[in-house]
Amino acid sequence: MENAKYKRIVLKLSGEALAGASGFGIDNTIMSSIARQVKDVVEIGAEVAIVVGGGNIWRGVAGSAQGMDRATADYMGMLATIINSLALQDALENEGVESRVMTAIEMKEIAEPYIRRRAIRHLEKGRVVIFAAGTGNPYFSTDTAAALRSAEIEAEVILMAKKVDGVYDSDPVSNPEAVKFEDLQFIDVLSKGLGVMDSTAASLCMDNGIPIIVFDLTRSGNILKVVQGQNIGTYVGR
Ligand code: GTP
Q1: pLDDT of residue 1
Q2: Which of these, 22, 46, 62, 216, could form a disulfide with 4 (CB 3.0-4.6 Å)?
Q3: Ligand 1 atom closest to Cα of 108?
Q4: Separation between Cα atoms, residue 219 and residue 203, nearest integer Å
Q5: Residue 1 domain-assigned?
Q6: Which protein residues are within 6 Å of ligand 1, measured from CB?
Q7: What per-residue confidence (pLDDT) applies to 2?
């Protein structure tokens, strides 16, 4: 393998990351940029699985805040992640990257159902596997889906793509004095409520020894840098 520090990774993309400035829908330019960046990572020999959120289309929590039944709102969010996953697969294929979408809720006419051993086989064959529909359960976020799938496929690390370059002690957008952490422990994320990921996801990562790296996706080339082991973003471990 050429210079990949990690052999198998899970990349977590928020739905908003696909939306561009409007915050809604799917921005083709951003999608192709992400696809090109993923291609660079595949080309150095890393196995890449992707979990994508759905917040650019629908947020279950927001629906429930408006009085909708929480489980129904969450199922709508899972459907949103499937839309994003299909768009991502299309963008990857435009770049010549082979990929497979696997859904946690069976929808055979649209994509393969999630089968753990099959997902691993796809990865071994160099295909990018996109895990769609979260965990398939309401009340679980797509961050938790990333943690769960990482444990199942024995990924070495979760790369959490954000619009900021790591974890700060307060919001760097509203507070210019905010201090960035170079590394952190999950227990601090949980006890300080740092908002990197929800507590279910953080606990799952902590209990199963899966580190996460929070990094800035808006700088092109960053995914490759993280996979090569360059010290950018914030490393969260045990
Ligand atoms: P191998 O041949 O095992 O290396 O993998 P493969 O994914 O190429 O094999 P397969 O023949 O299973 O799949 C061929 C194509 O059909 C791929 O694009 C799969 O994503 C797709 N496919 C496989 N199973 C399903 C399914 O249940 N539903 C849908 N919609 N597509 C599927």
Answers
A1: 46
A2: 46
A3: 28
A4: 29
A5: no
A6: 100, 108-113, 125
A7: 57
Instruction: Flag whether 118 is in a domain.
Output: yes
Q: What is the pLDDT, as a whole number, of residue 7?
A: 97
Q: How far is the CA of 113 from the centre of ligand 1 (A)?
A: 10
pLDDT tens digits, 30-82: 999 999 999 999 999 999 999 999 999 998 888 889 999 999 999 999 999 99
Whether the per-residue pLDDT at 22 is higher than 50: the answer is yes
> What is the secondary structure of 91-148 as a DSSP string?
HHHHTT--EEEEESS--TTTSEEP-HHHHHHHHHTT-EEEEESTTSSTT--HHHHHHH
Ligand 1 centroid distance, CA of 102 (Å): 10
Structure tokens at 9: 């990774």
CATH for 149: 3.40.1160.10
Whether residue 96 is contained in a domain is answered as: yes
Structural domain tally of the chain?
Answer: 1
**What's the gap in Å between 111 CA and the centre of ligand 1?**
8
* Residue 166 resides in a domain: yes
